[in-house]
Structures are given as C-alpha cells and as structure tokens.
Automatic annotation (TrEMBL):
SUPFAM superfamilies: Acyl-CoA N-acyltransferases (Nat). InterPro entries: Acyl_CoA_acyltransferase, BioF2-like_GNAT_dom. This is GNAT family N-acetyltransferase. Residues 153-277 form the BioF2-like acetyltransferase domain. It comes from the Bacteria.
Amino acid sequence: MPWTSRKALYRALCATEKTIPIFARDWWLDALVGAANWDVVLVEAEGRVLGAMPFVRNRHLGAWWLSQPPLSQTLGPWIRPLAGRESERLEWEVRIMTDLIAQLPRFGHFIQNWHHSRGNWLPFYWQGFHQTVRYTYVLDDLSEEGRLWEGLRGSVRGDIRKAQQRYKLTVRSDLGLESLLPLLRMTFARQGRHLPYPEDLLHRLDVACAEHDCRRIFIASDPQGCLHAGEYLVWDEMTAYDLLSGSDPALRQSGATSLCKWESIRFAASVTRSYDFEGSMLEPVERQLRAFGAEQRAYTRVWKTRSPLLKVALLLLGIL
C-alpha cells in the first residue's frame, strides 16, 4: 500500500479511535517531526484498520533509525481490541504484530517505548528484537478528590499547605508557554544543562495542542508576581500526562512544585480518567512521583540494532 494511502487511513483512525494515546496521534507527530518525517505500517481489512504502528524515520550515525519523537513518552503498536477468550486475544495480537513487523522498512536501529497497557511483545522477541523494562507512575482513577488527597504522602500535603498558607501562592492557568519557558531553562541550568529540546519545537507543539484543546499550563505565582514553578499538562480521552515541569531554584522551598502538580491532577479529573506522571528512572525524581500516591507501571522499551558496531556506539552513548 502506498505511504500516502497508509497515512490517510491512519489519520482517519486517529480522528475516531479514542484508545490511541496522544503521543501516537497524527497531528502530534506532524507537530514534532513534520508530516514528511513519520510513517506508519498498518494491518487492515476492507478499509478497517486492525493494527497500526507509527514511527519516525531519520538517518543518524550512518544508519536509518525507526524511533519516536522527542517529548513523547511512548509510541509503539496499536491493536484493535478483540473480545473473547484469552487464547484468542493473544493469537490475534501475535498475528497483527507479526504482520506489522513484516512491513517495517529496512533499518539499522529500531527503538521505541511502548505504552504500559501493551505488555505482549513476544512476536518482536521471536524476530530478534530486545526489550528493557522502564517505569512510570499512574493515578488510575481521578473520580474522588478526597481519596486522591489522602493518597498523598504527608510531606506533599505539607508542601501544598505551605505554598498556599505561608507563601500565599496561587496557581494560574492564564499564562502561556512564554511564562513557563524561563522556569524550564532554570531547571536544566541548575543541572548544568541546556534545554534538551529546541524552543521552536515547544512552540510548534503548543500551537498544535491548543488547536486540539488538550493542554493546560499551570504556574504558581506569589502576591508579588514572582513565578515559582510550572507544569505543562496534555491529555487524551483516556489519560492526562505531566509533560513538562520547571521551577525557580531560588524559590524551591515554597512548595510550588507540589502545588502545581496537585492542581494539575484536580483539573485532569475534569477532562479524562487517569493521570500519568511520565515517571523517571532517576532516583530523586522517582521518589517525588511516588509520594503523590500513584501506582508503579512497567512499560517496555523495544529495540533492535542490526550492526554490531552501531550497537557498541549506542551503548557508549547511553542510548541502550
């Protein structure tokens, strides 16, 4: 099937299928890498898509890579759910994934993180792919605010009260990306790093998310107008994602980061079902996310490198 036909089918699927995560939506991929720089393989019957796997295709370190965009927690295969016995569901997944793998273009390196709901990767293992387990933290049910509040560790509740009562912080959602960017820059500068993504990329994504009414920026401000911390939240019909967060290192003791996260959770309950903190493998970050009462979820990084020399280079660069 020509790539233009595949993309047209996939775009139509994204317009109607609510179980496709936001990171795999066509417009999200367009915003982050451009419409010409991503593709998709499909399994379809009579015009109905049964399975799909989008990917970003670019050339890096002398090889073609099939991967995923920046600022995207996951990508990976989407498979139309099949009702019935467990054995039938697994057989269905094996058939769809085997067909998707067979359609992939030639590559030197494949690497994608899969959504935590996609646990079965056996057909990829049978085809010589590898996997690594990673973790995120998720609040599955946002329906009861009181239960969510009680689920917070005492130190987090204390930070939120301190931010509100001692520092008189309020969380604003009327400020745009330009107000959040300095907080992001300061967060990475404190670590001796620059922003790991171009600012024009953030602007493109922000415009696309605003057009699709699926983002909200939360910024904690004090009575003097100083901005302490901020969160960038995106969501689809199933889950909200804590995409970006930043704070002023000089104002870290105010509890603003906890307050922003709490307000973003409260808001997420009005637009979707669950909240994904986009958990980090870094120990200090993991401790902070765990303190919000979220449950650990394992997700899979699937990869395959055809060249031994390229594999050594990726290991040295810390990519694998």
